[in-house]
Design goal:
alpha/beta
Length: 245
C-alpha cells in the first residue's frame, strides 16, 4: 500500500471540532461525521484534495456524542459508505437511550447548559458494530490499520490505529483552551466530558505501548506520544489519589 495521509476537516474553526479523512489506495476513510448539517464542510475538504463523496468508502464514528455522530446518517446517504461503530454506544445512535455526560470541570458544567451538546440528530443503525475486544481491519478499504475499542470517554469509544503510528482517538483527550484549539494546542487535557478517566488512561497507555506516536483528536491537537504519556499518567494516578483521599 502507498503511504496515506491524514486530512483534518474543520467542522468548527480553530480546531474546536475536527473530523479526519484518511486517504488510502482506493478512496478515503472518514473518521467522525461532525455536527448535523455540516456535510458541506466535508465536501469542501474533499474537493480541495481531489475527492468527492463517492470516494469515501467507510465512515467511522468514534462515539455517540453529537459532534462526532450527528451527521453520520446524512453522510451515509451521500456517500453510500457503511458506518462502523461500537455496540456499547448503539442505543444512543438509535436515540433509544439518551446520552449521559460526566463533566470534567467548570467548562463541561457550563457547556451542559447550552443547546449544542443536546442537539438531536438523525438516528441511524451502524452497518458494522464492534464488540468488546473486536479489531476491524481497514486493509479492505485501502488503509493499513485497524479500528479498536478504546473505552472511557464513553463505553463504546473506538480509535483508528494506523501502521504509520498515527492514531485518531476521538475524545479520549483534547488540547487547547475550552473546547479545544486556539492556544495551548500542544498541551493534552481532559475533554469537557469523560465517563471514566482511569479507563481512558488505560486505553491511552495501551495505544502508547503499541507504538503510536501521533494522536489526532476531535478537539485540538495533534499531540505527540510524549505529551499523551504525561496525560495518561495523570489519569491513571487519579484512582490512586482517590483511594488515599
Amino acid at each position: 500500500m502507498r503511504p496515506h495521509s491524514i486530512i483534518r476537516i474543520p467542522i468548527l474553526p480553530f480546531g474546536l471540532v475536527n473530523a479526519h479523512l484518511v486517504t488510502g489506495d482506493d478512496g478515503c476513510v472518514l473518521v467522525d461525521a461532525g455536527l448535523p448539517g455540516t456535510e458541506a464542510k466535508v465536501e469542501q475538504v474533499l474537493k480541495q484534495h481531489g475527492y468527492t463523496f463517492q470516494d469515501i468508502r467507510l465512515i467511522v464514528v468514534t462515539h455517540a456524542h453529537v459532534d462526532h455522530a450527528g451527521n453520520a446518517a446524512t453522510l451515509r446517504e451521500l456517500t453510500k459508505a457503511p458506518i462502523v461503530a461500537h455496540v456499547d454506544d448503539a442505543p444512543h445512535f438509535t436515540r433509544n437511550v439518551p446520552m449521559t455526560y460526566c463533566p470534567t470541570g467548570w467548562f463541561g458544567r457550563l457547556f451542559l447548559k447550552t443547546k449544542l451538546i443536546h442537539e438531536p440528530y438523525k438516528q441511524f443503525v451502524p452497518d458494522v458494530l464492534l464488540s468488546q475486544n473486536d479489531t476491524f481491519d481497514l486493509s479492505r478499504f485501502g488503509v493499513s490499520g485497524a479500528i479498536t475499542h478504546t473505552p472511557g470517554h464513553t463505553n463504546g469509544s473506538i480509535s483508528v490505529e494506523l501502521s504509520t503510528k498515527d492514531v485518531m482517538v476521538g475524545d479520549l483527550l483534547a488540547s487547547g483552551i475550552l473546547l479545544g484549539g486556539l492556544v495551548r494546542t500542544q498541551h493534552a487535557k481532559r475533554p469537557p466530558f469523560e465517563d471514566d478517566p482511569y479507563t481512558v488512561g488505560l486505553a491511552l497507555q495501551r495505544l502508547l505501548d503499541a507504538g503510536m506516536e501521533r494522536f489526532y483528536m476531535g478537539h485540538g491537537g495533534p499531540l505527540t506520544a510524549g505529551e499523551v504519556q504525561r496525560h495518561a499518567q495523570v489519569l491513571l494516578g487519579m484512582k490512586e489519589r482517590e483511594a488515599h483521599s
